Amino acid sequence: MATGPPVRLIPAPATLPLTEIVARLNTAQPPALMGYAAKLAELAREQLAGRLSITPRSVVTNAEVLTPADRAVMEQAFAVPVIDSFVSTEGLVGHSEPGGSVLSFAADMCLAELVDDDNDPVPAGVPSAKVLVTNLHNFTQPLVRYELTDRFTSPHATPAGGWPRASIEGRADDVFRYGGVAVHPHVIRSALSGDGAVHEYQVRQTKGGVDVDCVTGGRLNTAVLAARLADGLRQAGLTQPEVNITIAEAIPRDPETGKVRRFLPVQP
């Protein structure tokens, strides 16, 4: 969060208890919020419940995929359009317009190539398997066609105004592979984000389906959700998907970064 002229950063690590983060924000009354998408959505629900009371003029998400459900709850709670951002240590950075889902990337900092598994360019409207980044400003350790496993989709064949633009669908290494069947996280994410009772989740791939831990904010009909997930997995190509749902108190975060790994594929 940022407050005061010109900018004063006040940290509220995602690893802190939620009550402490809320207390810090209530004390600081920041004009801007920036943080992980899932954590900001959690804070938005605290705002709607009346435990958090702030009026930021800007809300920016980073580091995690921003789902439509998380965007909606943030915009409802804070009454501002959300800006989605992308920052990589390799130098590729971009952000969306307020309320937009397509990001514009700084082409003067990096060249970004959207390619398939064979490093061939993908056409507009087709998700890439990865992104090849060539850094244009790091002279100490140049990076040429460095591979990022993020999946980008460009909405146009040519960049608008010279800036490459793309939406982000997550990371290719989050794909669950069952023999010759590949299930993209969006198949699972769309079912989970469509249930308002699901606030956080973690999905583990199993031999024949998925195990899902859900943190809820209300009564969750696990049977209905399991059926919806199984239907999505069948449409993706699994013949007899097995879905198990467990209600959890919390999803563990990385103790150093505070991030949550949402999808855990079976390790080869």
Question: What does it look like?
Answer:
The chain has 268 residues and is α/β, with parallel strands linked by helices. The protein has 5 helices and 16 strands. Helix 2 (37-49) packs across helix 3 and helix 4 runs antiparallel to helix 5.
Number of helices: 5
Shape: globular
Integer average pLDDT:
86
Q: C-alpha Rg, in Å? A: 19 Å
Number of beta-strand segments? 16
Strand portion, in percent?
25-35%
Largest sheet: 7 strands, mixed
Distance between the termini: 40 Å
Please state the structural category: alpha/beta
Low-confidence stretches: none
Oligomer: single chain
H/E series: HEHEHEEEEEEEEEEHEEHEE
Please bin the fraction of helical residues: 10-25%
Record the strand order, biggest sheet: 1-2-3-4-5-10-9
